[in-house]
Specification:
Blueprint: E1 2-11, E2 14-24, E3 29-33, H1 40-48, E4 55-60, E5 63-64, E6 72-75, H2 89-95, H3 98-101, H4 109-121, H5 137-150, E7 155-159, H6 167-182, E8 186-191, E9 203-208, E10 210-215, H7 217-220, H8 223-230, H9 243-246
Parallel strand pairs: 3-8, 3-9, 6-7, 7-8
Antiparallel strand pairs: 1-2, 1-4, 4-5, 9-10
Helix pairs in contact: 2-5, 4-5, 5-6
GO molecular function, one term: ATP hydrolysis activity
Keywords: ATP-binding, Nucleotide-binding, Transport
Pfam families: ABC_tran
């Protein structure tokens, strides 16, 4: 089980996260939603120790998560990646095996097979020798999903994976998420605009610095909770419309 306890982040006196608590069982796909600046990316980074926290902790399988980074695959937002870096699709996927090989390890036949399987699974094996900067947004997102698959992780964190992708890529991502969930993995996926994709989730965390609501999408995405999360920005930050009428009726 993943357990987040009283996690708080403060940036030079400005609250980034305030005492966030939740837990996730194996085999669950959990979405994190909220307005821009709500702390969704901060939450994922704080869980991994990529930003300093002022309180709280994160345990995975009853041990501190930061001591088990080898069990975690993290895919940041595309805007945080240097797409001009001269690296091929195959080499990016191979990076997911670095912890298993060591920095000076030589990939063997087994490693090459894992990389090929991952890239085939996301539908871009034919692009394996292309540089990542030459790809479309959807293809780039699939590259890093492929890298996450090569890590063979038990906990997968995705930050805004649906931003700027085409419908084909979105369908591929959701299919793989379903497969990973069936394998007993834990998936935590942030997004500022889910739309109909909400129906694929087991649970939803509605966040705006603090945790506004935690439950099924139907339980969380009510008009009252949306107003609490988005306030006067409701309609400007493009949250999913009130779901009682659009998805669940």
């Amino acid at each position: 089980m993943l357990e987040v306890r009283q996690l708080a982040v403060n940036y030079r006196g400005i609250c980034g996260l305030e005492a966030v608590n939740f837990s996730v069982q194996p085999g669950q796909l959990v979405g994190v939603i909220g307005p821009n600046g709500a702390g969704k990316s901060t939450l994922l980074k704080a869980m991994l120790g990529l930003v300093p926290t002022v309180s709280g902790g994160v345990d995975f399988r009853s041990q501190p998560l930061q001591q088990q980074r080898y069990r975690v695959a993290y895919v940041p937002q595309r805007s945080q990646i240097d797409w001009d870096y001269p690296v091929t699709v195959r080499n990016v996927a191979m990076m997911g095996r670095t912890r298993h090989l060591g920095w000076l390890g030589t990939p063997g036949q087994g490693t090459h097979a894992i990389v090929q399987s991952a890239l085939e699974r996301v539908g871009i094996w034919d692009l394996r020798d292309r540089r990542i900067g030459e790809l479309s947004g959807g293809q780039q997102q699939r590259v890093f999903l492929g890298r996450a698959l090569t890590q063979k992780a038990d906990l997968l964190l995705f930050d805004e994976p649906f931003t700027g992708v085409d419908q084909t890529t979105e369908a591929v991502i959701l299919e793989i998420y379903a497969e990973l969930r069936a394998e007993g993995k834990i998936l935590l996926v942030s997004s500022h605009n889910w739309g109909q994709t909400l129906t694929q989730l087991d649970r939803l965390l509605l966040l705006n610095r603090s945790l506004i609501a935690d439950g099924t999408p139907q339980e969380v995405m009510t008009a009252e909770n949306l107003q609490r999360a988005y306030g006067s920005r409701l309609g400007q930050s493009q949250p999913p419309p009130a779901l009682e009428s659009q998805i669940f009726c």
